[in-house]
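Exercise (ungraded).
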Amino acid sequence: MSEPLPDPTNWVCPLPLRETKRIVLGHGGGGILSEELIENLFLPAFGSAGLPSRDSAVLDPGGGRIALTTDSYVVNPLFFPGGNIGDLAVNGTINDLACSGAQPLGLTAGFILEEGLEIEVLGAVATSMGKAAADAGVGIVTGDTKVVGKGGADGLFINTAGVGVVPDGIDIGPERARPGDHVIVSGSIGEHGVAIMSVREGIDFGTTVTTDSAPLHRLVAAVLSAVPDPAAVHALRDPTRGGLVAATVEIARAARVGVELDEHLVPVPETVASACGFLGLDPLQVANEGKLVAFVDPAHSEAVLAAMRSRPEGADAVLIGRVVEEHPGMVVARTAFGTTRVIERELGEQLPRIC
Amino acid sequence: MKYLDEFRDPVAARSLVESIRRSATRTWTVMEVCGGQTHSIIRNGIDQLLEGAVEFIHGPGCPVCVTPLEMIDRALEIAARDNVIFCSFGDMLRVPGSSADLFSVRARGGDVRIVYSPLDATRIAAENPDKEVVFFGVGFETTAPANAMSVLHAQRLGLANFSMLVSHVLVPPAMTAILSSPTNRVEGFLAAGHVCTVMGTAQYGPLVDEFGVPIVVTGFEPLDLLEGVRQVVELLEAGRAELRNAYPRAVTDAGNTVAQKALADVFTVTDRQWRGIGEIPASGWTLSDRYAQFDAERKFGVGDLRVTESAECRSGEVLQGLLKPNECPAFGTTCTPRTPLGATMVSSEGACAAYYQFRRLAASV
Amino acid sequence: MCLGIPGKVTEIWDEAGTRMSTVDFGGTTKTVCLAYLPDMAVGEYTIVHAGFALTRLDEASANETLRMFAELGILEEELGGLSGEELGA
């Protein structure tokens, strides 16, 4: 990046924007107001101040296949313990690429702003995005801004797309899970969902839980280089909405295999467990934004665990289950008492808009 | 001592299971009348662990499930009115009335809010003096003290815009109704531990004497449930009908006398319809006359409403323990959590929902 | 809905004549009304339901119950009911 990034907590509005405290419809109009917003807010935040503007970013993929993903972020509230919609968007999109075994090449950032949104809020979000992208070593290479009338957008919506490259020889996908595979989770679960709920209106409870939002592409790269043949890693998924349950059920269904999880081995921090107990929620269903589930060839699961644990974002990686031939498409949890129960995805959102 | 993990210890669970299996010379039918216990039994597979020694019949312990259809329809009518903020525990939102549920009322623009405590509703009333705020007061004796206090609170603050739609139900009359039924199969009871923290244990002695069944006050964690069952089976094997307390760390014989005083002041006993079961005399609480101004039923004049229950729904039989959820033809087919026919599939403590959520491989394959 | 979970009272104060408290459920804290437990003290454990503390948890009684479970375990082992293997069969 060409300039040091401004500190998100100390964001000061540069001159041309100083007269406007809030977003107006004109900021999405493509005219002078739009240009000022881009030049003075977005580009500095993303660390590309002064780069010539183009209609599209042009990236050189090198070899391999292109991976492409998109996500929209409508989380409410915009700011939550440990993060905000901005860094959530950056990390979430990087993680979608990572779970295909792709090395991220670049991200887009499309904003839909509500008329009346405070410029300060937008500045803080954009700066967080720039920081998250810089920390991950991935550029935000292009974007777009539109403004909708009051009431149209909960303040701020973000759409991101991510482009990455999957090196030759890597073939990771849910349908590749097969009986005998070991199921590994990269760390403790439930933090993001609990962090969001703790600041949701009407629920309020005190907690020290913060979001676990983090980019996982380096973790994946470490895992892929630790195994003698990357084909040993069959499937990866980041358990976001719907938690661990949704991630494993989707893979079980895609591969038409059964999955058995040892419930008491799944790492749940005490603070998450107590919040879930208090709210009557199952930690297995709660969203995560900095974790992944891996389905790997059992002969290499030790190497995968060691690789994960060698990185801070995978320090608590643990084996939690296995793939079986029985009950294809279904995930069964074995309790600490030796009893079993089929685990199902929730009907819909337990709460609106957690990511 | 944190009072949680210690009572989930798998090794101790194993000893309790072995002890029960060792002492049971036949299969005994045991009922719990508490949605929280039903949920815990099925979630932890306690019924699986004791198969052959104990058959669980899940009683009508989910207050959401037994709230009469007329009451749901009254709630829907009030919630749909302009100028009303309708507050409720989350579980009630998807319970089907005759033709809608609170969730759909909200989707159509009604101001329906989920609260954790009735004090949240009084706070909303204080903050919105130009609106009518109504709280849906359902629950057993465990929830009633909270509801009573919110009425007293509203009175103290002079909140003329606050009222409560009361539909409280009581455990002992339900147990009496079940034990009096000619089709009763229940041989022993687990009494609801948290209800007893409030009411004490005195009401259960007469039931033991009248019907000759052992009743054991039981908690919610796996070890508590196993210990409650262990004591019931011990008594059954010895042919002794007695009242025992297997949850002494939380339950005293006297209960919470401060709460009981408030309950006696704020509520009076009434006959109540139990959805799926019918009328059980003196089985509910309604607001006493001196608090009439806080009674939403009187305030909104939601009198006689015509109710239509789904013909296919057999939750009544499930609630009485006559039918297991997975034995109902609609279970998992026309009746699922997405398209519930009755309340037992909606509430997270309902037997049908618990069976669906925690269903077993054998029942699924 | 009818969740009654144990937590520790960490703070007590008076709010317009009503006793209120902060209860800690192992890292999650909530404001809870103590109106029904007038002599509840900081450091004690309670069961909370719908925003109200309903009963005091008796530590001695809890320990007694756990001790009884442990004794049962020893008895069952003597009777041959327990094998040395792990759960999960």
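Further reading is listed at the end of the chapter. For now, observe: The mean pLDDT of chain B is 90. Residues 64-170+255-300 of chain B form a domain with the Rossmann fold fold (CATH 3.40.50.11740).
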